[in-house]
Structures are given as structure tokens and as C-alpha cells.
Amino acid sequence: MSRRAVTAVAVVVVLIAGRLLVSRAIHPVAAARYGAEPVAAPRPEPKLAASGNAARATSDSPSREMTSAGTSENAAESRNASPQLAPADGGVTDVDPHKAFGSKNAPIIMEVFSDFQCPACKTLFLTTNRQLMDNYVTTGKVYLIHRDFPLPMHAHSRVAARYARAAAEIGKVEPAEKALFENQEKWEQSGDIDGTVAAVLSSADMTKVRALVKGGTLEPLIDKDVQLGQMYRVNQTPTTVFHSKGQTYPYSSAMSYEILHQFLDQLLSQK
């Protein structure tokens, strides 16, 4: 075989391998190994709401959900967790202290864009978050920020976000979020978000929560999170954006604690 033919075959193999890495949504640990030099993170103008016709994703992970059926190219980009340069502001703005956990000075910041009606977000919350809180957040290694990203395809997710934020305002974020995720299938069918949260809060606390929900002050906070998510090109939930040493690592999907643990330790070991 001539040298020209060998070169052509090599190029084809490299191209195919590259497409496979993107289409298979490699884990952050693998992405960090295979990633090349970081590229500048795009800063598109924020929009108030996701556009497009809502549809459930038909990818290799059916529990993940996307904002629209026409965003597969951007979804592939966001799933690839190779590093990007952080924006000038560090990529972390408009942090609601009621929805942030740990030390602001932690070496790693995690922004989790989540939808209370998303099954994959439920999986992440119930199987990974507790260990993350115990081993990295309370120990000062990770600053965890919850971002509301209610998808248009979900009839009740924005209402659930309002109730969770209201509960956070009065210091009851953990029981409210746990109740919403654990009973997701029930209120998804009935729409009874108020009753779901009321089951774990006192009557006095629910009076405060309902007043906040009806007051209209929470809606702009949710919209800010949505705008920030769109700046990161978030188009499915959950999406986690890691910030470490001036770089950002976006990752879309429910991540197991084993993978998250490996990736966080790798980031912490970098100099």
C-alpha cells in the first residue's frame, strides 16, 4: 500500500474515532484525559426561555431530557466534558445563597441545572448528592449551586421550582427538594405540588411558602437561572458545569457518585 493510501486511511480512522467520542457522551474523567488544549467558551446572548418544540430525548440514556428536538448538535457539544476557558466573571453570577451550599472559597464550583420533573435529575439527587454533600461540600472542597432549569415540556416543573425556592427562602430547602424528587411520579400525575411540600413542612412554614409563591418575587430568580443555563448552551437536564482553576467542564447526564468522585479528585490534584 502506498504512503498516500496509508495516510488517507489514518485520517478516516481518526475522524470516526472523534465522532464516536462525542456521540457516546464520554464521562468527565475520560474527557479530561483525551481533551486537547482548552478553547474559549462561547458567550451567546441570553434568552428568557428555551425555544423549540419540547420532546423527550431519544439518546442512549432515555432518562435524560432535552429542551427541544432540534438541539442534537449542541447536546453533543455539551456532553463532551473537555475543558473550556472560563468567562471573565468566572462563570458564576447571580448566586442565590439559599440555593448554594458549602464555601464560596472552595477550589471547585459546581452549578447543577436541574428540573424537578426530570427523572434523571431525581436519580442524581437521590443517589449522588448526599455523598457529594458529605464528602466534598461540607469539607470545603466543592461549592454547590442549584440552578433551576424547568423544561417547557414539563407542565408542573416551573411551579415545583417556585415552591422549592420559597422553601429555601425560609431555610427549608432540603426537606422540600427531597419531597419533590421522592414523590415526582405522584405530583407529575396529579399536579399537587402544594400538597407534596405541605406533607413535610409545618402549617406555619407552608403559610410563608404559599405567600412567597403567590408574591411573584421568585419568578425573576428562576428566569435568571434559565438565562445562565442558555449562556452555557444547556439543553437537557441535569447539566452540571464544573469550574476549577480558571476552566469550565460542562457535563450533561445523571452522573454516578463513583465517576463524580474520580473526576473531582482529578480536578483537585491538578496544579
Write a structural description.
The structure is a single chain. The chain is of the alpha+beta class and 271 residues long. It has helices at residues 3-23, 28-34, 72-79, 119-127, 129-137, 157-169, 173-182, 184-190, 193-198, 203-215, 219-231, 257-269; strands at 39-40, 65-66, 84-85, 100-101, 108-114, 142-148, 236-237, 239-244, 247-252. The chain has one domain (3-269): Glutaredoxin, CATH 3.40.30. The chain contains twelve helices and nine strands. The strands form two sheets. A seven-stranded mixed sheet has the order 1-3-9-8-5-6-4, with helices on both faces. The protein is globular, with a radius of gyration of 20 Å. Mean pLDDT is 76; it is low at 5-63 and 68-90.
Features:
alpha+beta, two-stranded antiparallel sheet, Glutaredoxin, 12 helices, globular, 13% strand
- Low-confidence runs: 5-63, 68-90
Count every beta strand, where a strand is a DSSP E run of 2 or more residues. 9
Main sheet: strands, sense, barrel? 7 strands, mixed
At the first level of CATH, the class is Alpha Beta
What is the second-level CATH architecture? 3-Layer(aba) Sandwich
How many independent structural domains?
1
Write down the overall geometry: globular
CATH fold descriptor: Glutaredoxin
The percentage of residues in β strands lies in 5-15%
Enumerate the strands of the largest sheet in spatial order, edge to edge or round the barrel.
Answer: 1-3-9-8-5-6-4
Mean pLDDT: 76
Report helical residue fraction: 40-55%
What would you give as the CATH superfamily? Glutaredoxin
